[in-house]
Amino acid sequence: MLRQTGIRLFFPDVLYLKGKALLGMSRTGEAWQTLNEARAEAEATGSRRSLWSILMALSEIEAQRGNQAEVQSLRRQVREIVEYIADHIGSPELRASFLNLPDVREALAQAS
Questions:
Q1: Which site from 14, 65, 74, 92 is most exposed, i.e. has the minimal number of CB atoms within 10 Å?
Q2: How far apart are CA 13 and CA 41, in angstroms?
Q3: What are the residue ranges spanned by the domains of the chain?
Q4: Rg (Cα) of the chain, in Å, rounded?
Q5: What is the CATH number of domain 2-110?
Q6: For residues 52 and 74, what is the distance between their CA atoms, to the nearest angstrom?
């Protein structure tokens, strides 16, 4: 429906959730394709908010495949995006709140 209406704002998020669901059902190949589509949409729309989560999910798949070089590359990108978001948040309180989100903390820990 989002494709038909041309609404792209939340399309990366929808594809991310679909990819995570496929990954949870052990449909890794389909998950990888869907997450790469989500990545392309997030990059096309400039959605860093969506992109870092998508890249983390892709790094999970690459870790399962044993592709450590790609895992490191993806997680390095995640760290850069998360740091960019944190550096551009309007207030110290919001920055601290963002950096203390469980998913953000986990992503940064894995990206180290």
A1: 92
A2: 9
A3: 2-110
A4: 14
A5: 1.25.40.10
A6: 9
* C-alpha span between 2 and 10 (Å, rounded): 8
Place of tokens 């989002």: 2
Residue reference for tokens 């990059």: 43
CB neighbours of residue 81 within 10 Å? 22
Q: What is the 3-state secondary structure (H, E, C) of 7-72?
A: CCCCHHHHHHHHHHHHHHCCCHHHHHHHHHHHHHHHHHHCCHHHHHHHHHHHHHHHHHCCCHHHHH
CA atoms within 13 A on the CB side of 103: 11
Please give the model's pTM, rounded to 2 decimal places: 0.89
- Give per-residue pLDDT as tens, 78-106: 999 999 999 999 899 999 999 999 999 99
The residue among 52, 47, 18 whose CA lies nearest residue 35 is 18
Using the CB atoms, write b or e for 34-56: b if 16+ within 10 Å: bbebbbebbeeeebeebbbbbbb
